[in-house]
Amino acid sequence: MTAKNKQDELAKMLANPEVKKKLLSLLEQQGNAKAAKSKAAKPTPVELVKYSDKSVAVIGETKPLKDLLKSFGRFNPFLRVNDQVTPGWIVSIKRREELKKALIELGAL
Asked: Of 34, 28, 91, 102, which Cα lies nearest the Cα of 65?
């Protein structure tokens, strides 16, 4: 199974509310209950912006969403957005809608 197939499979799994609920339950069982509840209760505000003809960037408070964003793209600490250097994640424009849906479901957009 290729990395892209694994990413697609992970994204599909996270889109399912039952899987998301089970994942939070497992995190609580492993002693990460506080982290799981804070991530579920407090959505992180991020912004999805067009970065180039082939990519979009996710900027803002992305650290709590690191694992999700890692399945979609790469982190770059030196993105240039609106003539300012800012850290963020670069994602292929082909996966924009899938990423947007996942971020909306988590309450981050």
From this structure: 102
- What are the residues whose beta carbons fall under 8 Å from the beta carbon of 6, sequence distance 6 or more? 71
In order, the DSSP letters of 42-99 are SPPPEEEEE-SSSEEEEEES-GGGHHHHHTTEEEEEEEEETTEEEEEEEEEGGGHHHH
Give pLDDT, residue 43: 57
For residue 59, how many C-alpha atoms fall within 13 Å in the half-sphere facing its CB?
16
Q: Where are the domains of the chain?
A: 3-105
Q: What is the pTM of this model?
A: 0.61
Q: How many CB atoms lie within 10 A of CB 58?
A: 26
Q: Which amino acid is at 20?
A: K
